[in-house]
Specification:
Oligomer: heterodimer
Largest interface: A-B, 20 and 17 residues
CATH superfamily of the largest domain in chain B: Type I PLP-dependent aspartate aminotransferase-like (Major domain)
Distance between the termini of chain B: 37 Å
CATH topology of the largest domain in chain B: Aspartate Aminotransferase, domain 2
CATH architecture of the domain at 81-225 in chain A: Alpha-Beta Complex
CATH class of the domain at 81-225 in chain A: Alpha Beta
Structural class of chain B: alpha/beta
Radius of gyration of chain A: 17 Å
Number of helices of chain B: 14
Number of helices of chain A: 7
Number of domains of chain B: 2
Largest sheet of chain A: 4 strands, antiparallel
Number of strands of chain A: 6
Strand order of the largest sheet of chain A: 5-4-3-6
Helix content of chain B: 25-40%
Structural class of chain A: alpha+beta
Strand order of the largest sheet of chain B: 4-10-9-8-7-5-6
Largest sheet of chain B: 7 strands, mixed
Strand content of chain B: 5-15%
CATH architecture of the largest domain in chain B: 3-Layer(aba) Sandwich
Shape of chain A: globular
Strand content of chain A: 5-15%
């Protein structure tokens, strides 16, 4: 899919002002998570992108993040997260060439809102990454965890984009249920379950889980607020 | 200028011990005898890079000794340019490890049986080799540690806590490796001492004049690198030691990036402590060493307690061995130390001056080649007639994260470089960046390796720029 059409408006990926009702409405969730600039143009069967689309060397790969609401799995949050992981793993496993996995990550990196300055606070910094990654989390009124992330590395942004696609809007229990080894086949450069400062998947996922856990604890204590 | 002699670099199948080859064979290829000079480098000053000393470059000559280099990574020829992080191991070292475990494995300084005696002999011979390699006056001045980091911690916890008092000053440079900073932060926190940092001058080299100005009677210790792992710059250690001693301060030299690449003579430098790491000098991981002057080591209390370091143990106290045993509690990394000894034999066989000359040539070629990459910034001093820099370059390309560069270089081109802060965050802050990419060479690298890097880097930059 070599797209050329440009969509200039970018729908905010993450907004604390979105109503819980809107977030939880059954089939709209995935659709909302796809920025306008990446939505599929079904009529033309083309992908509208604001960046150059990367050819995938003839491999037909299901693009997990590009799914429309109609293609979305069942609405139950638990199934959503598990299914998304499967889709993502399938997608990256299908990319035989390492460079294609890099390209795919860059493709997804473009989905993160640019220069999300509020997320680049020192308290939001993910410890243990070789690049700088910032993650923020908060719990909405429906008890779902909303994530926002940024990085100074495009490839790390791609990791963040995928993780947010999987976990944003999920319930805390579902976020915490994800195992780092679930993502081992999605890795680029660092293989398997390696716990390393260069394993961005691992480190960002763990940071998201820590924040989710902290939000749960806060809510239990009757304190509702933002965890940074 | 390059000589295509890949014919010499036989593509080896996967390494297997039965086909271990001796580096002695190399002598027949070399028209010039191995030369090991006792002279030290004129630190901080350039020596004209000479062409490779023989018709076959040292890189091409030695590549067959490193089986790991002859493999494909991600579909491309491996180009290993991360020697600042760790070096590869020649067959001679692998063979020494295998021989030790096959023939001599036993605990040292324990049993009277044959194997223990043999292991002890080999282990102490390795100490002697290290001693000779850096020209220590006595092998008892060499303490085996796990690595250079442990060697610095040993000095910090033993000498530092005993000798440094409140308001004493420890002078470091902003370009020190974290392992030469953090232990002294511990000491400062425990003793009330003050850490003072020397910043960079306009040439992006730690300002030695300012360092000298900082020295006073309050100064108890100066901690400096010999060769910067980021800037590639070389500090005039002999000069610094002279000035530090004038005010009664001791000097600890982090020589991790110099000992593997040039002649280092501790008696000539006159440093009080010097540390280095085996794995950066073609030896195994898990072993490093501390050099300390005999009188200073003898006055230092133990760092770690346990077997081997004691003389007598009573219910409530113990007496301790003399150095170096006093500082080697527990069973040491015997095989690794012996492997380090084999690495030293290998390096000495090539000749450290020869290695240095070749790396100067190759390092200059790397620097000049990198300058051709658009929007690149290379950190540290530009090599010139007056400024010598080591064979490594840390750099950034505008608007591309170094880790993204390194990832693409690896995944698409099989080129291994390092990205990140290289354990030097204070230095990167001073340079105004959070991270950099680094290509660091060793004597087994070639002009073709550098050419491959440049080609791959240009492709990488084009790739990322196409996304903008």
């Amino acid at each position: 899919m070599n797209a050329t059409a440009i969509t200039t408006t970018t729908q905010p990926h993450f907004s604390s002002s979105r109503s819980a009702a809107a977030e939880s409405s059954s089939n709209s969730q995935l659709h909302n998570l796809i920025p306008a600039k990446l939505k599929l143009d079904k009529q033309n069967n083309r992908c509208s992108l604001s960046v150059k689309c990367i050819p995938n060397r003839g491999i037909r790969i299901p693009s997990a993040l590009a799914l429309t609401a109609a293609e979305a799995p069942p609405s139950k949050a638990t199934e959503m997260v598990a299914d998304k992981i499967k889709r993502l793993v399938l997608e990256f496993k299908s990319l035989a060439e390492p460079i294609d996995r890099v390209k795919r990550l860059l493709h997804y990196a473009a989905r993160l809102p640019p220069d999300n300055v509020s997320a680049r606070e020192p308290e939001s910094r993910v410890q243990g990454c070789s690049t700088q990654v910032w993650v923020e989390a908060e719990m909405d009124e429906a008890g779902r965890i909303r994530f926002r992330a940024d990085s100074d590395s495009e490839i790390s942004k791609g990791f963040c984009s995928c993780l947010i696609w999987m976990l944003d809007g999920a319930e805390a229990g579902d976020v915490l249920a994800v195992e780092t080894h679930d993502l081992q086949d999605v890795n680029v450069g660092v293989y398997g379950k390696v716990n390393s400062r260069v394993n961005t998947w691992h480190n960002v996922l763990l940071a998201m889980q820590r924040k989710a856990q902290a939000l749960v604890t806060e809510r239990k204590q009757g304190i509702r607020g933002t965890c940074q | 200028m390059m000589l295509t002699v890949e014919g010499v670099t036989v593509k080896l199948p996967y390494y297997s011990f039965p086909i271990l080859r001796s580096p002695v064979r190399r002598a027949t290829l070399n028209s010039r005898p191995f030369s090991v000079t006792a002279s030290t480098l004129k630190e901080g000053h350039s020596e004209t890079p000479s062409a490779p000393p023989t018709s076959i470059s040292l890189g091409h000559l030695t590549r067959p000794d490193f089986p790991i280099l002859h493999q494909e990574v991600n579909g491309s020829r491996l180009v290993y340019l991360d020697n600042g992080a760790t070096s590869q191991k020649p067959t001679a070292v692998l063979k020494a490890l295998q021989t030790y475990y096959e023939c001599h494995n036993s605990n040292v300084h324990r049993g009277i049986h044959y194997l223990s005696a043999k292991a002890t002999e080999e282990y102490e011979l390795a100490r002697k080799k290290v001693s000779n390699f850096i020209n220590a006056s006595d092998s008892r001045e060499i303490v085996f540690t796990r690595n250079a980091t442990e060697a610095i911690n040993l000095v910090a916890y033993s000498w530092g806590l005993q000798n440094i008092k409140p308001n004493d000053e420890i002078i470091l440079t902003v370009a020190e490796h974290h392992s030469a900073i953090v232990p002294w932060q511990f000491v400062a926190q425990k003793t009330g001492a003050v850490l003072k940092y020397v910043e960079l001058n306009e040439h992006e080299v730690p300002d030695v004049d300012k360092l000298k100005d900082m020295l006073s009677r309050k100064t108890k210790l100066v901690v400096v690198h010999h060769v910067s792992n980021v800037l590639g710059s070389v500090l005039p250690i002999k000069d610094i030691v002279l000035c530090a001693h004038d005010v009664g301060a001791k000097v600890l030299v982090d020589a991790c990036q110099s000992v593997p690449h040039m002649v280092v003579d501790v008696q000539n430098l006159n440093a009080d402590f010097l540390v280095a790491s085996s794995h950066k000098m073609c030896g195994p991981t898990g072993v490093g060493f501390l050099y300390g002057k005999s009188d200073i080591l003898s006055a230092m209390p133990p760092f770690l307690g346990g077997g081997e370091m004691i003389s007598d143990v009573f219910y409530d106290h113990s007496t301790y061995q003399e150095p170096p045993s006093r500082f080697e509690a527990g069973t040491p990394a015997i095989g690794e130390a012996i492997g380090l000894g084999a690495a030293i034999d290998y390096l000495s066989g090539l000749g450290m001056q020869r290695i240095h000359d070749y790396e100067m040539f190759l390092g200059k070629y790397l620097y000049e080649s990198l300058q051709s990459v658009p929007n690149i910034r290379i950190y540290g001093p530009a090599p010139s007639e007056h400024i010598f820099r080591a064979a490594l370059c840390s750099f950034n390309v505008e608007n591309i994260h170094p880790t993204d560069l390194a990832t693409f270089l690896d995944q698409q081109h099989g080129v291994a470089i390092r990205s990140g802060h290289h354990c030097a965050q204070p230095l990167h802050r001073q340079l105004g960046v959070s991270a950099s990419a680094r290509a660091s060479l060793h004597f087994y690298n070639t002009v073709e390796d550098v050419d491959d890097l440049i080609r791959a880097l240009n492709d990488t930059v084009s790739f990322f720029n196409s996304f903008k």
